[in-house]
Amino acid sequence: MSGIASFFRPFSRRSLAAELRRVDAGHGIGQVPARLSPDTIAPLVCGYCSTGCALLAHIRNGHAVNLSPAPHYPVNHGTACPKGWQALAVLDSADRATVPLVQDRRGHRRRVSWGEAIEIFVGRMRRIIMEHGPDAVAFLGSGQLPTEELAFFGSLAKFGMGLRHGDGNTRQCMASAVVAYKECFGFDAPPYTYADLEESEVIVLIGANLAIAHPILWRRVLRNQHLRALVVIDPRTTETALAATLHVALRPKSDLVLFYGLAHLLLRQGWYDRAFIAAHTSGFEAFAAHVAEYSPEVVTAATGVELQTLLELARLIGTSRRVSFWWTMGINQSYEGTRAAQAIIALALLTGNIGRPGTGPNSITGQCNAMGSRLFANTTCLLGGRDFRNPAHRLEVAEILGIDPQRIPDTPGLSYAEIVEAIVAGHIRALWVVGTNPLHSWINRSDLEGLFDRLEFLVVQDMYHSTETAQRADLLLPAAAWGEKWGSFINSERRLGVIRPVRRPPGEALPDFSIFQHIAEAWGAGPMFRSWRNPQDAFTRLRELSRGQPCDFSGVRDYEDIERAGGIQWPWPADKAGSEPEPHRRLFSDGKFFHPDGKARFVFEAAREMPEAADEAYPLLLLTGRGTAAQWHTQTRTSKAPVLRRLYPADAYVEIHPDDAQRYGITSGCEVFVESRRGKARVRASVTPTVRPGQVFMPMHYVETNRLTHAAFDPYSRQPSYKACAVRVRPAPSWEEE
Ligand code: SF4
504 alpha carbon to ligand 1 midpoint, in Å? Predict the structure, then answer.
């Protein structure tokens, strides 16, 4: 108990009130910063997706009244998608969380002061830890938070409160890419710059519907003057596939076999870069032996791709000088997502398509700060992309932060899925959820609903009180949103961008950063974070934490450096401080990777069976993905913008092929039940040939979808396999309830 008790100090309401005043004075909570004049234009990067577009907030009387895309930013060049244009519209919603709320077991919510809320948080968490140990409490964060807040959250939870188990919603979208890069390159290092989209001769998009998921990147594809072929590998005829010069409509989850088959053909035809492989890679011979089994006959049988298509794709990759491979969730959200991503990396290594303009095995991230989360959330990796298991890394972090190395755990703790399992087992009794909505977004969410009732204490820190998860919270802490606080994001191409407050948070909502400060003080961990007075101070810590790492941005002195340069991609080490970065930089142009031998590795494994294939009882495969460019994830925000609501169907729907529709007596617009072994969803049917016979598609944005998905996981990344499970569809009689 002494180790735990040492984290605590007596809590006094008076000291909290003083702390609130100190923090308020320190960085202008609730105020548009002084350096914005009452009527001006303020730049900030967008708070939705990982593209990282820059927007201009138009300020009138000290309050943002409109947004427009920044004309000269090297990411978006004066354009934005509907979500970016409408980003302010979601901030004035009536269901913003404006005061702390406590909820009793009968569901009655009661308003409390911040002082009471923090006291309840500390008191109840402390009691659970005293009774059951620190492993009885876990936390879940979000790639929507700025890096400073993520680092504070993870550091407070692990070093300050002594917790071990925490994860983030980035586990749901990017974990497989992270593991793939780490194992192949020695660090989680997406190598590209967006300019590569404009410089490729052949672009291969894999499981990526860029036209709606990353519309600004799609625009950059359309600007490419060198493009000879646009290949889309996707089971569906997506908006992006419609524009492809070659659409490879493979069977769902046969991608790994396809990539090994392509490698087989490249080797057989001699279309590989012997010099690059010899100088810059390891494991080639074993990889070549592995793919020898993946003959065209094997591959066409497993994937359903015609021989001519397979040969044409191999020829395009093997005979073009600048080939880039881009993937998103169609690869990552799979039971073998890590190996599939590594097979894509292998194709790039095999052909020397890396480190040059227009090349690369390029994973595009989802959330606006997934990349910041990957490096600094202090969950999967120790701060700055370090390893919890490495004693030298723990010492480095302890020294930079001025803390006792004993406070740093020597393992990364449980993953999201393992945290859920630990709740089932009764080992985890309290959960602190910040900026995410697991009761909508987690795979097979029906299971989770009952599960959250088992928790002794659920704390939700969110900008809305209405999310499925917030409604279950014993304690709701109202958080400021994007546009109401300072911080920095890192986008998919490793570019740091700045967000800033351009309006006041509503009511008593506070930036997450401030909430963490209050909790740290009340917990007795305040001294550990005294130098984290505000996000800019925290950024200084992040710079130091990055120093000497592959993601080194110690040469970025402050937020003004970032804004002046139009964003700065890492690496940007200290010796570059003050100089002007080129607008676009890619990694590995020197052929040196981050493994000790400087070489990239071929990593591979035999393809496995799909965890839940279609069968007689459930004869259709359910695919999931994004619906429109106007929807974001669980629609927590986008559903609040009237303009966006007009751009997508209000109700959940399922896309079904005309042949299947006819077989089951379904017409477009009619209500149907989609049923899996986990649950049933009543949705509208959309009869369309964009899905193949035997497959149906539902957008991820509707709460119905994850009633159906099957909780299978990649064994290396522990990422959920959202993309394919077995279902059946039938017309919904009006009398039958869901
Ligand atoms: S593409 Fe992404 S970053 Fe750009 S405006 Fe749209 S949501 Fe924002």
Answer: 22
